[in-house]
Automatic annotation (TrEMBL):
Keyword Signal: yes
Gene3D superfamilies with a match to the protein in the record: Periplasmic binding protein-like II
Annotated signal peptide: 1-22
PANTHER family assigned: ARABINOSE-BINDING PROTEIN-RELATED, DIACETYLCHITOBIOSE BINDING PROTEIN DASA
Domain of life assignment: Bacteria
InterPro entries: Bact_solute-bd_prot1 (IPR050490), SBP (IPR006059), TAT_signal (IPR006311)
Protein name: Sugar ABC transporter substrate-binding protein
A matching Pfam family: SBP_bac_1
UniProt organism field: Streptomyces hainanensis
Keywords: Signal
């Protein structure tokens, strides 16, 4: 590492510390954690990331950051399950060999903040005028804030998109604009005896909850109301029934076992007319090595239900700093660089949807997406609800409870008694979850 590089690092971090000190009355990121430990000047900055296109894209620019800060960067890329297991083991042991963590805010952040595993970034993101925290879309920004503390920064966002076959709806007035229309057209186009389905979507008990959430909101419901279970309200039962009927009557067999990995290829292989899932997965349908619909696929906003077209708008992935890191200042400098207006625009220009409003207002970044998809994303961001699953500490258990009536609906069972039973279980879970304690 050269003397010039080290000087650059000190100057950059000095400016950063000054901004934080001005905003926080003398508190820096390193001081917040209350640790006196220091790392070797030659120690690499360690990033742990998901096997995601964003991680691959940002890694291409590591040379720029290393030259700027004067420290080598090492990134470990893991699957989502491996990532969860690694964090659970290492953070419980207060491990210092992770500096920056790529995580799922809606799945992980409440628990991580509750356990004091993530550094408080509030003064850093709000005290740096050039960084412009207010430029991040409101919904993703809020999901990275816990008890008025910013503990993560969003890097990838997603909303639901209606993927449809243009050739099949050309004579029907275009894609369905309402859920009633989606049901009617799916029934009309389904030819299940010959292996063609009107609609395909996730049906697996826990895995389907995030996509079902948009149906729930559009029927006027939510997972909780005033911190109490709301999954047996009239609105929730109507959403369960609708989604169940859509899959039961027009979907493929075995749908209750279908996650993203099973449902997506059915649409990609031209075996379904409609599919609703995250807009971030659109490239799978444009890749001729896995898709037969790349020339006929269309993109549309989530259809309107009785309460409107209310899909989610969430940060699917974000960056946090390990509270036990010995390189917290350099870790923040990395997060600041990776989520700067310039870098977000650059990454979004590669077709990866970011969280900054300025990037979405830039015609050059929108040009990376098919025009119909870019408009679908824009509309979804404006209408979007800021969560796609229950906001609790133990998210996996909550999804399992909420998904039980959904499976019953797909199987054609009587939904209200199952929903009432799940509602009682969920109400008890919310008390035991202690989701507000200590956060």
């Amino acid at each position: 590492m050269s003397t010039n590089s080290r000087s650059l690092s000190r100057r950059a971090l000095g400016r950063l510390a000054a901004a934080a000190t001005a905003a926080a009355g003398g508190v820096t990121l390193a001081g917040c954690a209350g640790r006196a430990d220091t790392a070797s000047p030659d120690a690499p900055l360690r990033i742990v990331a998901n096997n995601h296109v964003w991680a691959e894209a940002i890694r291409e620019y590591f040379g720029e950051f290393e030259e700027h800060v004067g420290r080598r960067v090492v990134m470990s890329i893991l699957t989502a399950d491996q990532l969860a297991n690694s964090y659970n083991v290492k953070l419980n042991a207060s491990a210092t060999d992770i500096d920056v963590m790529m995580l799922r805010p809606l799945q992980d952040l409440l628990l991580f903040a509750h356990n004091d595993w993530v550094a408080d970034l509030t003064d850093l993101v709000t005290g740096d005028r050039d960084y412009d925290w207010s430029d991040f879309q409101e919904a993703p920004r809020q999901r990275c804030t816990v008890a008025d503390r910013v503990v993560s920064v969003p890097v990838v966002t997603e909303r639901p998109a209606l993927y449809y076959r243009r050739d099949l709806v050309a004579d029907l007035g275009g894609p369905p604009a309402t859920l009633d229309e989606l049901m009617a057209v799916s029934l009309e186009l389904a030819d299940r005896r010959n292996g063609f389905f009107g609609y395909v979507g996730r049906g697996q008990r826990a895995g389907a909850v995030s996509q079902w959430s948009s149906f729930l909101y559009s029927f006027g419901g939510d997972f909780t109301v005033d911190d109490r279970s709301a999954i047996a309200t009239d609105e929730a039962i109507a959403a369960y029934r609708y989604y169940g009927e859509l899959l039961e009557r027009t979907g493929p067999p075995g749908v209750t076992n279908m996650t993203l990995e099973q449902a997506m290829p059915i649409f990609a292989q031209g075996k379904a007319a409609f599919y609703i899932d995250a807009d971030a997965i659109y490239t799978n349908f444009l890749d001729p090595t896995i898709s037969t619909v790349q020339d006929t696929i269309g993109f549309a906003p989530f259809p309107a239900g009785p309460a409107g077209a209310l899909g989610y708008n969430i940060p699917s992935w974000s960056l946090s700093i390990n509270a036990f890191s010995l390189l917290r200042d350099d870790a923040w400098e990395f997060v600041r660089w990776a989520t700067s207006p310039e870098m977000v625009a650059r990454i979004q220009g590669d077709g990866i949807p970011g969280a900054r409003a300025s990037a979405w207002a830039d015609s050059d970044t929108l040009g990376a997406f098919p025009p119909e998809l870019a408009e679908t994303m824009r509309i979804g961001a404006e209408r979007g609800v800021d969560h796609d699953r229950p906001e609790v500490l133990q998210v996996g258990r909550a999804r399992d409870i909420v998904g039980r009536p959904l499976v019953a609906a797909v199987l054609g069972q009587d939904v209200p008694p199952v929903a009432r039973d799940a509602d009682a279980e969920f109400a008890d879970f919310l008390v035991r979850d202690n989701r507000h304690r200590g956060i």
